[in-house]
From TrEMBL:
It comes from the Bacteria. It holds the Pfam family UPF0014. It is a multi-pass membrane protein. It is found in: Membrane. The chain crosses the membrane at residues 6-29, 90-114, 120-140, 190-208, 214-235. InterPro entries: UPF0014_fam. Belongs to the UPF0014 family. This is ABC transporter permease. Keywords: Membrane, Transmembrane, Transmembrane helix. The keyword Membrane applies.
Length: 258
């Protein structure tokens, strides 16, 4: 066992969470209560999932419902991060996540690499959904921030004859590409800087180092594919005006968005 779950474990977690919240407050990085809430929420959710997962894996319908719940939470989270009120179109965040994750999971199931069993399908899908969520949020936020900062360049593009989609793409594409950096860095440095969870978990479960490494490599490559699709789809939605922070925008401007 990697960690003993006891009173000391709980005390250390509480101290670390308090430290994180204190640093956030002192450095004015946001609201300390958000950090405390995130930690407390994570604890409650993990306890709940630990209790439910053993029941869910026994039934395929329940398993599918659980996966849909994971997806719905990811969509809501991404939408709120990318398009805060009073913006419109947050529900479009579900498109890049689904477009990225669904084909990969389907391919894994059809080829038999991942059986339709909760003990395998849930963590694999969760990792992929999490990667797509991160890429969607980063690509969406960076693209929208860039469009706001460089609005004059978008107008200049329109002035020389570009349709609005093309003008937005020219400005936002490089910024949205930054969403791929965390995944790229993790893949490039795996084994040298970090030993990711899948690798460590399999070693603790008794797998050989070679088998654990193969599984971790599979996860990393799958994440690269998922994050690339999610970022590209998010950029396209932003360029078409489907995702916007302006309350008056949720659809592209007629005749200008290509």
């Amino acid at each position: 066992m990697l960690l003993d779950v006891n009173v000391t474990f709980g005390a250390v977690l509480a101290v670390l969470l308090a430290l994180a919240a204190s640093v956030v407050a002192l450095a004015h990085l946001g609201r300390a209560r958000d950090t405390l809430f995130a930690g407390a929420r994570a604890a409650v959710q993990l306890v709940a999932v630990s209790l439910v997962i053993g029941w869910v894996v026994r039934s395929v319908p329940l398993l599918l419902c659980f996966l849909l719940l994971m997806y719905a939470v990811a969509v809501r989270t991404a939408g709120r991060r990318v398009v805060p009120a009073p913006g419109r179109g947050w529900w479009w965040a579900g498109v890049p996540i689904a477009a990225a994750v669904a084909p990969v999971v389907l391919a894994l199931v059809v080829t038999g690499l991942v059986p339709v069993k909760g003990i395998t399908l849930v963590p694999v899908t969760g990792i992929l959904v999490g990667g797509a969520l991160t890429a969607t949020v980063l690509a969406g936020r960076r693209a929208l921030d860039e469009l706001k900062t460089r609005r004059g360049e978008v107008e200049a593009g329109l002035a020389i004859g570009l349709v609005e989609r093309e003008a937005r793409l020219e400005v936002a594409r490089k910024a949205a590409a930054d969403a791929l950096l965390p995944g790229m860095d993790q893949t490039r440095t795996v084994g040298l800087v970090t030993l990711p969870g899948a690798f460590v978990g399999m070693l603790l479960g008794g797998a050989s180092p070679l088998h654990a490494g193969a599984v971790q490599l599979f996860v990393l490559i799958a994440l690269l594919a998922v994050q690339a699709v999610a970022a590209a789809t998010t950029l396209e939605l932003v360029a078409r005006g489907r995702i916007s922070r302006e309350s008056g925008e949720g659809e592209p401007t007629p005749g200008r968005s290509g």
